Amino acid sequence: MERIGVVGGGLMGSGIAEVCARAGCDVLVVESDAPAAEAARARIEKSVRRAAERGKILHPDDVLAQVRVGTDLDELADRELVIEAIVENEDAKVDLFAKLDKIVAPDAILASNTSSIPIMKLAVVTQRPQQILGIHFFNPVPVLKLVELVPSLMTSEETTTRSRAFVEQQLGKQAILCQDRAGFVVNALLIPFILSAIRMMESGFATPEDIDHGLVLGAAHPQGPLALADLIGLDTVKAVAESLYEEFKEPLYAPPPLLLRMVSAGLLGRKTGRGFYTYD
Ligand code: NAD
C-alpha cells in the first residue's frame, strides 16, 4: 500500500505518519483545524530531525517530503489505507468512521489505533465492515516494534492479511493478532499487573522501590511496574483499567483507591513531576 491517510496528528498519529513516511509511503495527515495541523507538522519534523541526528534516518528531507498535513477529510479519497488516531472518544470515532466511509474509495481499509473502543462499534457504522480493523501501535511509534492487529467478527481474512503485510513487510514492525476485546493482549495482561503492584504498595506489603527492584532484578523486567505506571501516566492507567473492568467485570481490573486518589490529586507520574516517584 502506497497512499496512506492518518487522521489525528497527535502523539500517536504523528508517530504513525513518520513510520509510514520512513517506509516510503505517500502520507496525508488530517487534523481538526489549522493550529492542530501546524502542531502535527512540527511534531513530525522534530522527530524526523532527531532520528536523523541519531543516524536512524539518512535523508530526513526526503522523509518529510513524503508527508502532507491538512484539515480536509475529503482529500483522503484516494487513500488505500486510512489509520484513525484521534482522541479516545467513542462518539468522535463513530462520527469519523461514518464520514470516512463516504469519502474513501470503497476498496480501501479503514483502521483505528484505539486502545479501548470496540472495533465492532466502528465497523457497524460503515458500509464496509469487512474492511475495518484495529491497527494498534505502541508509544513511541518510531521505536516500539509491536503492532496489535484487531479484526472484528466481521473483518475479512483478506483485510487482516493485507494489514499484516503492510505493518510487517512495509513498516518493519512485528504484528500479533488479538480478538476485539478490551485491552487486546498487552494491556489486558499489563494493567492488572500494574494494579497488583499498586495494591501491594497500598497494603504496606513493600515500598515502591522494593517492588520495582524485585521485578527488575528478579524477573529481568527492564523497569518495575510502578516506574512503568509513572511513565504511562496514572490517568491513562486508570482509564484503561476502567475500560477493562467495564468489559469483563473482574475485580482484578478494578482501579484501586490509591490510584484513584493520586489521579484526583494530579499526581499523574512523569508528566506532572510526581507519581510513585518524583521527577525533576
Ligand atoms: P493525542 O491527544 O495526542 O492526539 C489526538 C489528536 O487528534 C489531536 O492532535 C487532535 O487535534 C486530533 N483530533 C481530534 N479530533 C479530531 C478529528 N475529528 N479529526 C482530526 N483530528 C482530530 O492522543 P494520542 O495519545 O495520540 O491518542 C490517539 C489515539 O491513539 C487514541 O485512540 C488512543 O487511545 C490511541 N493510543 C494511544 C497510545 C498512547 O500511548 N498515547 C498508545 C496506543 C494507542
TrEMBL record:
Pathway(s) this gene product operates in, as recorded in its UniProt entry: Lipid metabolism; butanoate metabolism
Domain of life: Bacteria
Coiled-coil stretches: none
Domain 3-hydroxyacyl-CoA dehydrogenase C-terminal: 183-279
Entry keywords, A to Z: Oxidoreductase
Site (Important for catalytic activity): 136
GO function terms (MF aspect): 3-hydroxybutyryl-CoA dehydrogenase activity; NAD+ binding
Gene Ontology biological-process annotations: fatty acid beta-oxidation
Domain 3-hydroxyacyl-CoA dehydrogenase NAD binding: 4-180
Any single Pfam family the record assigns to this protein: 3HCDH_N
Cross-referenced SUPFAM superfamilies: 6-phosphogluconate dehydrogenase C-terminal domain-like, NAD(P)-binding Rossmann-fold domains
Assigned protein family: Belongs to the 3-hydroxyacyl-CoA dehydrogenase family.
Database matches in PANTHER family: 3-HYDROXYACYL-COA DEHYDROGENASE FAMILY PROTEIN, 3-HYDROXYBUTYRYL-COA DEHYDROGENASE
Official protein name in the record: 3-hydroxybutyryl-CoA dehydrogenase
Source species of the chain: Nocardioides antri
